[in-house]
Amino acid sequence: MANEIILPPPPAYLQNYLPGAPINKDLTENVGESFPVLSIRSGKFFIRFQGIEKPYLDASGRYQSPTIDVVLLRSNPVLTKVWYIKGYQSGDRDAPD
Questions:
Q1: Which of 1, 9, 10, 40 is within CB 3.0–4.6 Å of 14 for a Cys-Cys bond?
Q2: Residue 39 belongs to what domain range?
Q3: How do residues 3-31 score in pLDDT, each as one tens digit?
């Protein structure tokens, strides 16, 4: 593969640590979402941060906003399609199959 990067073996003192070994577990312990996630359901926007989902409100803070201002910096030049065995279930937070 043309984009493959070959790395040298790690130093001897790190060779006992493989992906998933305790060194990696220590680094990811108690780590969760660190940035808000924007979603849309039934034409309304929601923001989920640290496991709490709230409706995205307009500038007055009283009404759920039907629009959101965004700036797109880049896009994927290649059309991407993904197929999952288990279909979409509204409200499902589990990772796809």
A1: 10
A2: 32-86
A3: 676 777 777 776 666 555 555 556 656 66
